[in-house]
């Protein structure tokens, strides 16, 4: 017996995600990509400046949150425009 597809309802119709769901997914994907970018670029910059230990983690953490929030916001706005 084949698997039931996600979003299958008893009426036989597929439920489409709402606009708010799409915006949430866009923000989540953007935040994830921004976090990875923040880790890479923030880590390289902090190591280049000679930071170690707590200073390194603090600087990279700030970079991760700022890059993730920025890219997540832009992805959410882009997803909202496409709704």
TrEMBL record:
GO terms for cellular component: TIM23 mitochondrial import inner membrane translocase complex. The chain crosses the membrane at residues 25-47. The keyword Transmembrane helix applies. Keywords: Membrane, Transmembrane, Transmembrane helix. Its main location: membrane. It holds the Pfam family Romo1. It is found in: Membrane. It comes from the Eukaryota. GO terms for biological process: protein import into mitochondrial matrix; protein insertion into mitochondrial inner membrane. Induces production of reactive oxygen species (ROS) which are necessary for cell proliferation. May play a role in inducing oxidative DNA damage and replicative senescence. May play a role in the coordination of mitochondrial morphology and cell proliferation. Belongs to the MGR2 family. This is Reactive oxygen species modulator 1.
């Amino acid at each position: 017996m084949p698997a039931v597809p996600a979003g299958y309802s008893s009426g036989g119709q597929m439920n489409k995600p709402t606009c708010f769901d799409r915006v949430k997914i866009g923000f989540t994907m953007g935040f994830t990509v921004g976090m990875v970018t923040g880790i890479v670029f923030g880590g390289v910059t902090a190591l280049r400046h000679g930071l170690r230990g707590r200073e390194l983690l603090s600087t990279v953490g700030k970079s991760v949150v700022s890059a993730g929030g920025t890219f997540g916001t832009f992805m959410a706005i882009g997803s909202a425009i496409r709704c």
